[in-house]
Amino acid sequence: MSGLPNAKQIEEWNGEKGKRWLEEYERVEWQLIPFGRRAMDQAALRTGERVLDIGCGSGETTLELARRVGPSGAAIGVDISRLLLDSARELARQAELPNVSFQEADAQTYPFAPASFDVVFSRFGVMFFENPDAAFRNLKAALRPGGRLSFVCWRSLQESEFFALPMAAALRRVPPPAPIDPDAPGPGAFANPDRMRGVLSRSGFTDIVIEPLDEKVGGWTLDETVETLTRMGPASALIGGAPQEVQQAIAADVREALKPLRDRVPQRRRLARERALLVPACGRPAFVPVIPRKRESSAVYPSSAAVLWIPACAGMTLLDDWRV
Ligand SMILES: C[S@@+](CC[C@H](N)C(=O)[O-])C[C@H]1O[C@@H](n2cnc3c(N)ncnc32)[C@H](O)[C@@H]1O
């Protein structure tokens, strides 16, 4: 591994982690859309603005940002993963949006043109910096005076069933991992809002608003759910490192643990698989925006999927091929 900043993340997101993200992407994107849309709403984008999308991954959010600012504006997605950026560029080509572009770069160190963006946005792409102070200072410098920052990141593992359930199943069968620094780069790096506030204020952001955001997620078949829960998130390394038979036993435990959750689902019609349906339909307002439009910067401190299944949103119910 090279001595570059964020070398470990660069290696992982261009390797196994990036591949897995792409493989699971269609399912995962469904879950992430509502979180990202809330953060976009918070940013209160205006026609003609220039937006930087940090850790843009496969680019869905970058495209949506470009639509929101219109052809006179621009959305630039930045990511360290060439693998994911290839997929993002393909998506942009298909969407024929002229105001989208992508940059392979480390957002912590890349020399963005000073004061060249109105908004810095991210959906779960800012928790991986080795040096968050340096990264947010860099992003602050890229914002014009009065520019805004809006992002979503995860709360603690315990607050998210999506992460906690497979972790609990894994820990019944494998030894716990060596304790890690809770602030280490990774999904939970900003789980502590005090830490996040400190990073942001030291980096020059003001008027910081941090809000919890809970969304209900799910909508896959039981098999798909078990697969995704054991392959993604903080428990995946633990599970993936176990012998095959232990992995199967953990998967069986996850499956068992999921059964009672069916009771939360009031209807059982087949979930329409078009992504487009997902977002407008799942509009349970768990989160009330509190950032006045004139704020200089803001962080949406968001969250976790607090509950695993999509609930009573119109047309958004569980699958009829759900078998337990
Ligand atoms: C959890 S994924 C989220 C991807 C995307 N924002 C989404 O919501 O689908 C995190 C992304 O952050 C990117 N990333 C991690 N560290 C980064 C850095 N220092 N600079 C830019 N991107 C980074 C990863 O390559 C990955 O694509």
Short description:
With 324 residues, the chain is of the alpha/beta class. Helix content is 40%, strand content 12%. Strands 3-2-1-4-5 form a five-stranded parallel β-sheet.
Backbone CA Rg: 19 Å
What's the tally of helices? 11
Bound molecules: S-adenosylmethionine
Helix share, percent: 25-40%
Low-confidence stretches: 263-324
Gross geometry = globular
Number of strands: 7
The largest β sheet comes out as: 5 strands, parallel
Strand order across the biggest sheet? 3-2-1-4-5
Distance between the termini: 44 Å
Please indicate the percent range of residues in DSSP E strands (runs of 2 or more). Answer: 5-15%
CATH class of the domain at 7-159 and 180-218 and 285-307: Alpha Beta
How would you spell out the order of helices and strands? Answer: HHEHEHEEHEHHEHHHHE
Examine the coordinates and then state which fold CATH places here, giving the name of the CATH topology of the domain at 7-159 and 180-218 and 285-307: Rossmann fold
What do we call the CATH homologous superfamily of the domain at 7-159 and 180-218 and 285-307? Vaccinia Virus protein VP39
CATH architecture of the domain at 7-159 and 180-218 and 285-307: 3-Layer(aba) Sandwich
Structural class: alpha/beta
Rounded average pLDDT = 78
Q: What report would you give on this structure?
A:
40% of the residues lie in helices and 12% in strands. The protein is globular and about 55 Å long. It has helices spanning 7-14, 16-43, 60-69, 82-95, 132-142, 161-171, 193-202, 222-231, 236-240, 244-258, 275-281; strands at residues 50-54, 74-79, 100-104, 117-123, 143-152, 215-216, 305-307. The protein has a five-stranded parallel sheet. Strand 1, helix 3 (60-69) and strand 2 (74-79) form a beta-alpha-beta unit. It is built from eleven helices and seven strands. The longest helix is centred in the first third of the chain and has 28 residues, at 16-43. Residues 6, 9, 13, 32, 54-58, 61, 78-81, 84, 106-108, 123-125, 128-129 line the site of S-adenosylmethionine. S-adenosylmethionine is lined by residues 6, 9, 13, 32, 54-58, 61, 78-81, 84, 106-108, 123-125, 128-129.
